[in-house]
Design a protein that fits this description.
Order of helices and strands: EHEHEHEHHHHEEEHEHHEHHHEE
Oligomer: single chain
Helix content: 25-40%
Largest sheet: 9 strands, mixed
Strand order of the largest sheet: 3-2-4-7-1-8-11-10-9
CATH architecture of the domain at 4-115 and 205-219: 3-Layer(aba) Sandwich
Length: 381
């Protein structure tokens, strides 16, 4: 891959309800933080990618709500409807095309103004599946059961993910739900859809993120340390849940392998220093870790019990607190990228991983992890 880098990041705090902030308000805050971080003005941005979703925003052409706040006037602008990692992927292709030197990517979401069960129910086939009343939570509960059955992962191991990530959030001032939990706290929380308790699920959240991508020449002018993009890939699995093995994430395995090959990585277990995964539910962190190949099938839960994925473990996962501690749906993946950037620059503060040089960020689209996007980032060119 030609030399490309992330040179600016900006994030709002993740909150349960940003009553005083519109979509544009959140975007304005994130964009200006990213510009300040890069030492740029909006005049230095060649083109803009906005990432949003009409269903989650409750309006058509949802990108128009944040256009002005993203500084699109007089610039080439396009929109992506889905997770922020996919918006960033599109922004990256624009840099690699040679047509642009810098690209600003934004992603926003206000879950507090949405009814997620109705929105995610609409993701199902309208003829056969939608009338069953399923939504993302019930579908993922099916997947959790399938994964646990295949790998013999236990409910205690799932609960440990919640304990770990909510605990990590205490160190992140932008996280929504820092909590000191025990396994009993997770098990005693409301059962949402067996085997998922309330504390196995990510919360309803509002937030926005922005990043600035640049080619090698423009990255030299960045105010702060550029973080270099070494490998990126995405892959999509079958739409119908019955057409795929829900206990495995084959599309993630393929996407990760392509990203690793692009980054000349041979062993993700040792080549990565930090991972930020899209953990909308506790089981997903363990399932995704196995899918990307950092541990064998059925071993992620055991390694978690041994502290392997803790902040001070051998391979820290979601030191920021992850989605379990704050999940603005569309912005979630872009926030994962921004969090890895912070780690590789060495400015993650109280949750900084010592010596972090290379990291993985991950985003998801579709029901039960239908489509995955994997980014490999490095502190060195």
């Amino acid at each position: 891959m030609e030399h490309t880098a992330i040179i600016g990041i900006g994030m709002t705090a993740i909150e349960a309800r940003k009553e005083r902030d519109t979509f544009a308000d959140m975007t304005w805050e994130a964009v200006n933080k990213a510009l300040e971080d890069a030492g740029m003005t909006i005049a230095d941005i060649d083109n803009v990618i906005t990432t949003s979703n009409d269903f989650w925003d409750g309006r058509t052409i949802s990108s128009m709500a944040v256009g002005d706040a993203s500084g699109v006037r007089g610039k080439n602008v396009s929109c992506v409807e889905g997770d922020g990692t996919f918006g960033a992927f599109y922004g990256l292709t624009r840099i690699l095309s040679g047509s642009y030197g810098t690209t600003l990517v934004t992603a926003h979401s206000k879950g507090s103004e949405s009814i997620s069960s109705l929105i995610t129910n609409a993701s199902f086939d309208p003829i056969y599946d939608r009338s069953l009343g399923m939504d993302m939570i019930t579908a993922c509960a099916m997947q959790a059961n399938s994964y646990m059955h295949r790998t013999h992962t236990t409910s205690e191991q799932l609960a440990l993910v919640s304990v770990k990530n909510h605990g990590n959030a205490f160190h992140n001032p932008l996280a929504q739900l820092p909590m000191k939990l025990t396994l009993s706290d997770v098990f005693n929380s409301e059962m949402i859809s067996d085997p998922l308790h309330k504390l196995d699920c990510s919360p309803v959240s509002d937030g926005c993120c922005a990043i600035i991508l640049a080619n090698g020449e423009r990255a030299k002018k960045a105010l702060n340390q550029p973080v270099w993009i070494k490998g990126v890939s995405f892959c999509c699995d079958a739409y119908y849940l019955g057409d795929r093995d829900l206990s495995q994430a084959k599309s993630l395995t393929q996407a990760a392998k392509k990203a690793f090959d692009m980054a000349n990585m041979t062993n993700p277990k040792t080549d990565l220093d930090v991972i930020e995964l899209y953990d909308a539910f506790t089981y997903q962190e363990l399932m995704w870790l196995e899918a990307i190949g950092v541990c064998d099938a059925g071993k992620a839960g055991q390694l978690l019990e041994q502290g392997y994925f803790n902040i001070n473990g051998k391979l820290p996962v979601n030191p920021s607190g992850g989605l379990l501690s704050g999940h603005p749906v569309i912005a979630a993946g872009l926030i994962r990228i921004a969090e890895v950037v912070k780690q590789l620059r060495g400015n993650a503060g109280a949750y900084q991983i010592d010596g972090a040089k290379r990291g993985l960020a991950h985003g998801v689209n579709g029901l039960c992890g239908q489509s995955h996007c994997v980014w490999i980032l490095d502190s060195e060119k």
